[in-house]
Amino acid sequence: MKKILSAILVFTGLSTISLAQDLNRVKEPDMLRELHRSEILIPDIPGYKTLKGDFHMHTVFSDGEVWPTVRVQEAYIEGLDVIALTEHIEYRPNLDHLTGDHNTAYEIAAPHAERHNILLVKSAEISRSMPPGHLNALFLEDANKLDTEDYMDAIEEANRQGGFLFWVHPGWLAQQPDTNKWWPVHEELVQKGWLHGVEVYNWDEWYPIAFGWCNDKNLAYLGNTDAHMVSAYRFNLAEYHRPMTLVFVEERTVESVRDAMFARRTAAFFLNNLAGPEHLLRELFDASVEVRQPFMVNEEGTARLEVTNPTDLTFILENPSPSNDSPEKITLRPRSSVIITCDISGGEALLPYTVTNLHTGMEKNLGVELHVSSMP
Ligand SMILES: [Zn+2]
Ligand SMILES: [Zn+2]
Description:
The protein is an alpha+beta fold. It has helices at 2-19, 68-77, 104-115, 151-160, 184-192, 208-216, 231-234, 254-262, 278-288, and strands at residues 49-54, 82-85, 119-122, 124-127, 134-138, 164-167, 197-202, 205-206, 220-224, 244-249, 266-270, 273-275, 290-291, 296-297, 302-309, 315-318, 329-332, 336-343, 348-361, 364-373.
């Protein structure tokens, strides 16, 4: 068998050479991969489409290492729908080598985004010392007008333009070395209606305390990369999707993304975790997980059945009051089912679980009930 194989290899090797008609150049299209994207399976929820977004990234037009179109290409192949290039207003170390202003990254990326069906949001990062720290402003008309002396003027201008503002990396060690605290100025911004969200996940860290702020102050949850270099260079994309913000929209348009953000219809997705308002995470869970009818029930009423998760999300379920009647822990990995046993001697059962990787607040996880019934 080995001999035949090597004979075929030698033969095809020779034939490639003999078939090459042009000695000046031989094109090898197989060397290039097709323009394909990884589709991330996250279900829509009732009334809304689920979009995947990254609303915090940098390019050479602030302190990033890539050209704006590269961000579009990454977003495309990594399965995103919507992105924002959020260049620092106050920090542009490449200006000795580049011209352009605070809108240039957007202007370069926009035609490329359109050709890749990626929604692009005109944005900027207001980058000040603490307080208020760094705030991203999305859906801007003109980022140049945010280049002001006083940070409050920049924030006011972003709001005047209809911008959505969120506090980014609130727990960044360089700015909050001790406790990750909510400052009076953030309270003032909320009172004025000028702060609309918090980045609860950034790069490789998350801020559980910020889940509480989002709930208490009615702010949107966001999770983003804050990528400065090529995303695949540092993110563990073999095991996880890049961190992202899920946005639940009426239509796949920038305007609809904006509406969803102001309505707080967002969730952060990072590693295997989701963080967001309880009702949204419940709808995502319900749209993802199916408890099937038992395929076997014994004389004592112990049923065997499958719980199925056809999505790319992971759900880790723990029984808050373990008993022998149902499993202590159920791990629903992406695109898989598990067989569980439970007691349905009463005809049906409601199994209470805490989904420990779905965060609905600070030290709060989604509670669910699996309804098992022998009836279809
Ligand atoms: Zn920053
Ligand atoms: Zn940043």
